[in-house]
Amino acid sequence: MAVTSIKSTYSLDVETVRTLEALARRWNVSKSEVLRRAIRAAAGEESQGVRKKLEALDRWQASLKAQGIDFAAWEQDARAERRASSIKRMSAFDDPS
What's the DSSP call for residue 29? Predict the structure, then answer.
């Protein structure tokens, strides 16, 4: 099966190109392969980071539920506070004093 590849041109600083070339020599692969590996590794790290953040959010929400926090009441209170704040701000524009 043929591998589809797309040629692209990028501008890199001298230090990055030297690092790219050194990695290619060390790994005994092409510079393109070094870039592919680096991109895949970075994408994997990013998805791991997102997963860890979501897991932390899940743990935090579970701990709040365990403490008996009523999310529906909290949401209503937050909305009421935002409305009150907006009304105050808008009335400040209406008041010429």
Answer: S
CA atoms within 13 A on the CB side of 6: 3
Write the CB contacts of 12 (distance below 8 Å, at least 6 apart in sequence): 20
CA distances from 86 to 44, 78, 79, 83 (A): 42, 12, 10, 5
Sequence-ordered list of residues with C-beta below 8 angstroms from that of 51, at least 6 positions apart, any chain: none
Read off the tokens for 90. Answer: 């808008």
Q: Is the pTM of this model over 0.70?
A: no
Instruction: Give mean pLDDT, residues 15-35.
Output: 95
Q: Which of these, 7, 69, 4, lies nearest to 35 by C-alpha position?
A: 7
Angle, to 10 degrees, between the axis of helix 14-27 and the axis of helix 31-66?
Answer: 100
